[in-house]
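Hi Y.,

Following your request, here is the sequence exactly as I used it, all 580 residues.
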Amino acid sequence: MTDTVTTPAPLPDPPGAPEGAAPPHEPRRSYAKLAADESREDYSLRYAPHSFRRWSPATVAGTALGGIAYLADFAIGASIVFTYGFGSGLASILTAATLIFLTGIPIARACATYGLDMDLITRGAGFGYFGSTLTSLIYASFTFIFFALEGSIMAQAMHQAVGLPVEIGYLVTTLIVIPIVFRGMGALAKVQAWTQPVWIVGLVLPFVVLAFEAPGAWGAFTSFGGTEGAGAGFSWIGFGLGTGVALSLIAQIGEQADYLRFMPAKTEANRRRWNLAVLAAGPGWVVIGAAKQLGGALLAFVALEAVGATHALEPIAPQIEALKPWLGTFALPAAALFVIVSQIKINVTNAYSGSLSWSNFFSRVTHRHPGRVWYIFLNLAIALTLMEMNMFAALNKLLGFYSNVGIAWITAVAADLVINKRAGWSPPYIEFKRAYLYAVNPAGFGAMVIASVVSILAFFGLFGTYAQAFSTFIAAGLALVLCPLIAWATRGRYYLARPNPVNGPGAEAADERATHTCAVCETAYELPDVADCPVQAGPICSLCCSLDAACGDVCRKEPGGAGGPVLMPVPTVPKAMSGA
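Below is the corresponding structure, written out as tokens. Let me know if you'd prefer a different format.
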């Protein structure tokens, strides 16, 4: 199950190496079969090499957008409007969508440009090598919370369609995604493509029926005051609280990034298609998401009298009511098919992204990597537990709390990419390798922690009613200000522990697609994924570097050791963020 390390005959330690360090010239690590199979691993802890990015911009974008098929948007939108009324709900949904779109632009472009997932981007965007372990947990929690939410919706559909008990339905929704997620990006791309026509028809049809059968529904909806007496007008308190719930979706950019890292290199020939694909598949998801939230609230409003407030929040019931005028008794199976397809499309993404996040977390904490696929089971076990605990009943409170941490993280990363890099306080490229990073960078990590703590205290009412309602705005504002402020105050000294020859002077003259063989695992990787290692006296791949528990970080404490650094031919550095 795990990577294995063989112990060859002792050799003299290289200059600068700690006592007992690995000999430099003999391969010492062999990965387990699953961890070594990149058709399943999808470079889960690494830079995605050009040789693997074989899909077109349109294919990558289509696969990424397939993941937004989820119906949690329907439930979230309906919950916000039912609780705070139409006026406040509409303003909340649109404001949250705007904030998510703006923060998603630089992150999406960085992931697509550098071939890195959200965790690796976070490392180099102000958090440091170990500082981003906390964000790995935040991201992992996003994936299993929303897997549980989407799984609950799917179980509700199966219960209504065939009478399957929801407790068993939770288990079925969990098990059904495993064979797909196990096979990685290739299988995910096929599933998203094959199911897209069914999903599009199922999404649009209920609104077409309403347009013909209940043309006055939207007008009545705009006067809806909610089910808790909030009123149809605008309320600052309702607006703040509703925005907090909607902003819980901000970490979705991480799941988009897990696909965007496979975007092919941008060239003059594909520049326009590349930019459009990154914009659509990156921040563009929230445009569709906001429309789905409003649409879900409308369907729930129309079904309210027929099914009651509780069932109106479950997407299957409003879907059935909307289709009845045209489909009659076939409305139930048609609605169930749409819900099941939608939930499979999103939950394969949730499970896939969760496995990446857990892999990143445990590889740094334990220095072991059994393979991404094993963490699928951990993520799904947690999600199944949440479903069995009926987390759907506490939707608003759970998502409102989570959004405080999620927005502090995402805003800090976006601030580094947009402000710090352009101001020169942060390197112009993304450095993700352990060999060149400090353990913790106070710029991003400190900003996120401070913003999260203050906003969570506000969320629990410590600073009064208005601060409680606007706790997510406090988190975003503090992270946006503190990240550049700390980077400026520290003069960016905690971004790089030592210079990286791969991105140093003269890098523009070499080829980043050239491969070098890792001195530890003897596998060839493209240059952005390797570092120069004084202990191994040669190149070491980023994963072997991460898993090394015996080197003592000599390269960072005394760069190059007594013998000086062992430099590799330098590759072309990817375009800086300012020119991407």
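Residues 72-114 form the longest helix (43 residues).

Thanks again,
Q.
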